[in-house]
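Researcher: Last one for today. Full complex below.
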Amino acid sequence: MTTAAARYAGTRVPRVEDARLLTGHGTFVDDVVRPGMLHACFVRSPLARARILGVDAAEALAVDGVQAVFTAADLNPDVREQWYTLIGKDVPDTPRPPLAEGEVRFAGDPVAMVVATDRYVAEDAAELVAVDYEPLPPVVDYATAGESGELVHAGYPGNVAGEFPGAPFEEVEPVFAEAPVVVRHTIRQQACGQVPIETRGMIAEWSAPTGELTIWAATQSPHEVRLFCSRLLGLPEQRVRVVMRDTGGGFGQKVIPQREDMCVMLAARKVPGPLKWIEDRRENLQSAGMSRHAHGDVRIALGDDGAILAAALDYVEDVGAYPAPWPVGTSAAVGMFFPGPYRVPKAAWATTSVFSNTCGRTAYRGPWQFESLARELLLDAAAREMGLDPAELRRRNLLRRDELPYTNPCGIPYDGISPLKTFEQALEMLGYEAFRREQERARAEGRYLGVGTCTYVEPTSAAVGLHATEGATIRIEPSGKVNVYVSGGSSGNSIETTVVQLTADALGVDIADVNTVQGDTAVTPFGGGAAGSRSGSMTAGAVAETATVLRDRIAAIAAHRLEASPGDIELDGGRARVRGVPEAGVSLAEIASAAYFQPESLPPGVPAGLEASGRYRPEHPLIYANATHLCTCEVDVVTGAVTLLRYIVSEDCGPMINPNVVEGQIAGGVVQGIGNALCEHLAYDAEGNPVATTFMDYLLPTAAGIPDIEYGHIETPSPGPGGYKGVGEGGAIGAPPAVANAVADALAPFGAEITRLPLTPETVVALARAADGR
Amino acid sequence: MTTAAARYAGTRVPRVEDARLLTGHGTFVDDVVRPGMLHACFVRSPLARARILGVDAAEALAVDGVQAVFTAADLNPDVREQWYTLIGKDVPDTPRPPLAEGEVRFAGDPVAMVVATDRYVAEDAAELVAVDYEPLPPVVDYATAGESGELVHAGYPGNVAGEFPGAPFEEVEPVFAEAPVVVRHTIRQQACGQVPIETRGMIAEWSAPTGELTIWAATQSPHEVRLFCSRLLGLPEQRVRVVMRDTGGGFGQKVIPQREDMCVMLAARKVPGPLKWIEDRRENLQSAGMSRHAHGDVRIALGDDGAILAAALDYVEDVGAYPAPWPVGTSAAVGMFFPGPYRVPKAAWATTSVFSNTCGRTAYRGPWQFESLARELLLDAAAREMGLDPAELRRRNLLRRDELPYTNPCGIPYDGISPLKTFEQALEMLGYEAFRREQERARAEGRYLGVGTCTYVEPTSAAVGLHATEGATIRIEPSGKVNVYVSGGSSGNSIETTVVQLTADALGVDIADVNTVQGDTAVTPFGGGAAGSRSGSMTAGAVAETATVLRDRIAAIAAHRLEASPGDIELDGGRARVRGVPEAGVSLAEIASAAYFQPESLPPGVPAGLEASGRYRPEHPLIYANATHLCTCEVDVVTGAVTLLRYIVSEDCGPMINPNVVEGQIAGGVVQGIGNALCEHLAYDAEGNPVATTFMDYLLPTAAGIPDIEYGHIETPSPGPGGYKGVGEGGAIGAPPAVANAVADALAPFGAEITRLPLTPETVVALARAADGR
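Model: Here's the assembly. Have a good evening.
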């Protein structure tokens, strides 16, 4: 049996999430109000590093409405097991006390939690908690942390959290020594926050009589929260229920529970009502996590013809005081993907993760993206050095289709990618040659235009550990309407729309007849959550796996009723028809009614009901997507203003389930990447004080500064279900190098090289002036 | 692969519901509070029959806080389709307008619904709604309704709602004409209410942006409510979500949505917030439904040896004004089961259902139970007439095991029953002969003791229509803990405990490791709900069906890990072991972790995950249970007080899943039956005014008047899963005749015959006096 050609997959189906979200009817965690709910507020360290000599909560406890003030002594001893399913229990990790114990390690470190009947009361009382600190010298700059003599965590000499030796440098040194052209820079990227619209938040409600804990969480992965909480408290997994309806973005920050979440979980059994904690923006920028902060000594060796001969990366990243999840593993990907989608015969790499007294490194959309930034900046620098157009240099080195499968020098086996195609498509969409002519004309007028690109290959849908499988339950209800259950949850990735589209196609029904239920661990099958650009392809697999069982059953019932062979039945428009005999059909409603109410009418061997639970298990642990970003800009060398003119993305994420969703994902990532490139900076002063804890200081890009993003799509199917690939992270990977290269190209007449972000007006002016000799 | 011997089935596992219920943490519909919730109150007719000339809501609408006053004109036109899945759409039925239209048909008929921000405001405003009635002569007594000249519903001449001609009387008349003994009485049963502790109630919350209606309901069948509501409003089935957590009893009253429920559903889209209606006790006794009200001209013909030669029943029942569900079908069962578990060569029967201007007949635990009442009273009367001990008469006529299978003269094919065994067991538990001697001694002292029995056969688990199948989804979560999903819902039948026991046994895990999720149509598989003594056996089938798939998968994985054959794996105590090698084992947690996180470690062909959805479809549409009730009493002929001395039930419901649950079901039914026999009476005066609308007037039995119930169990397996049979209704069937026979036996010295219930003190005194000639 077959379904007719997919009716919804590939089309711009309007998002099912939008009905509630656009009308203000979304349910974020702060929208959940429980009877008798209490409110938590954290007392946070004002110092980057200090010994805690004492905490006096007496005054706070005397405030009317204050129920409790918890310190490390109250909560930390209750921790039973503390590890993330995402990471596994056997990975070495630093202690992550729910509340600071003995020492505070960054300005914002939670020291105490105040619980009151009202959020305002809790905030006021938190100011009355007196913490006696003995200041200690902080390790603010990870780059010099090795020599500071102070340790963020005892037991980590030189403040090194972890290292990957990667591929040895000795093997590439001879190539660098002999190569006609060697370009080498130290590329530095600033710390950025994920800055979801919805800050973190959680409600934990303990039912003592039943021993059940219900959690409403702002999360990307309700099942990770459930497993983590179950271990943290020593509660059976099935007695913890984690519910999310809408989550206002995560971008890695909400992929796992953090320390404040643990505090709420631990305190839930000690307070007389449901406990709500909603992070405010200041806390989010101060404590929810940073990412991107890193530098690398990067080199490329090229032949006279522009062919890349070798690449080397020595990478050092800041992991802050309490990184979560443990980021050391991710750093290896920086090294392994540094060669990108280029023909690179030899490569060497090493990575070092370093602690500092700043907030912890957390996951961030494409956490390995430094590889693209470093590589693409160097390629442009090399082109300038060689007097080659950077497009021409890339053309000579980008992998061609006929070279695939190709294993890069770090052992990554690429296949099903189209880097050269996306590159050419992006250039064509721009009219690259015409732009170069325009650029020349503009320069003649004293206007500085630039074009920059970034071509990358992206590992998506890593199917390991927590992410190894994904499940779906589909119930065709007695009226023929469909409920489909996946772990998922609406965190901004349109997964509800995706699931509904795929299910409607798989069962040949109208999309309006499909409802999806997600984001409640008591309701849906186990799933890995929204991370690693996995939701689309993994869920597609889960839906396909499950729908097949139902399609076969429907075909058997329809064939029996229509006196046809099951192989001749096709499903379309909510009807099962005999192929070639369109007038012979039976509605899904009739089939469903029979399956539930007249099981005696079913053909022999066909079970009653129309419901199935299936689980997808990919054959390929990684699926490779790829893209080229292209950006043009005009730089005002007097004010330092960078105006983006056009932004083009040519993306190959395989066939698109919904182009609107794909483009939405790309757009969101691109805008984040533009912010990373031009303005965002989670900066600290020399004493370790965060200096960007409001949106007055932490500068986000706005719609006014972003051009309409133009999309080109290349579709090279992956070996996964539907040929789909992940697309959630790419936008944030490609944008920083594309923008930086465009600015560098604009500033080329000044001989400037860009080696650090962000490109704020003062930086741009300084670059132009320095090179200018002014 | 096998699981070890059942560890929980058959044992007195404490109820899992009790943790929350006994600590006051149950969540009944009135415990659900939604933000912005509005409250409904009904304006009800004070007259049994009247024309509605007008409704003036102006004064009510002027009250501060009143949001709306709905009349028939507002709500009734929105009804799209109105039929119950339980009954089917093709059964003829009277119109059932949500609000009374044109005419009110009983005192309590809802005429308008007031919606206000507060229940008190709604109640006050309801009193301000002015309804202009033109009184019409009511048809109060169904027994004379045929001659009244007035019609409750136009189009039903003689007020006959429906008739079953059954089996013709002509065929038995010759037997009656020639039989040595004929006993004939008109047996009358009064109207009773189901009287659940929780009255009816519903909250309906409409989400306009998403087109979703969420309903919290006090119901026995959330999926019936969903399907009904979906049709009523023309909403797709998957956009209606029905949630129940705890329901405080239904006993038939909550098996389907009634008119007030429809009003709430219909109004939900017209009011600006979630709409709650909680019935008060007066409304419940006035409008929620009555049952049992019937009489029958019943006859038995016997030979000189006491052998039953023929039986005949001419049955007439009161169905009130708006019966729901349509009861006419059930009345046939009264006729067909009238011969009971006795050897009856010939039988004739006919039934008539008659409208009256009283509240509608609704389902009630064992809705066909008149057959037992009539038969068992007649048998005792026959024994008295023949000078035989009623036990001896029964012994001569009860079906013996060696006569099975046996088809009764009405075509009912009994098998797997043990009437004679339960009868003998009950007598033995009492010490029947000793009691007879005690009775004689007591009579000599002027004390009147009596003993009465009732032996019946009961059709359970009728697997047709809505009830044809039952589904379960089981998810073994990554830690090896288990979630099991069935439609069910806690309405007092302990189904949560049953499901957890069965699942723990089926998977060989500790019962504490199993959690069940029920009572939410967005979450669980479709199911028929708690009705017809079906939940235990049907759910057992669903769990067994589903667990088999998982057991096979676990065995395959364990065998692979333990290098054994899947056939040699047994599951016990949360571990899979190799039979005969108890030290070789692997925990379910390890197996589950592998199934979700290391699918590559699974044996070939074994799918990832440990979750399955299955559906049970019985081979036998009916399963027969049987029992004998035995009651002894002392009657005070001066005060009319009936004191029950002992109450014994010997029940054959097959193997017991949980004796506590079985005995709890029996006890609940017995107490209801005792109430029916002795005190309850939903009475009307001659004008059709209900006179028992408080617990001061509607007399329920209390713990003080009920002896400890003694249980004997006979276990004849049924052909269903586990050999289980239904047991939910039996208690209420057997008790009224057993009690009435005991009273009759006590009053035998007065020559009194009992032919009507309830046996209130005045009735008992009258019986003794009348016979006494006083």
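The mean pLDDT of chain A is 96. The two ends of chain A are 75 Å apart (CA to CA).
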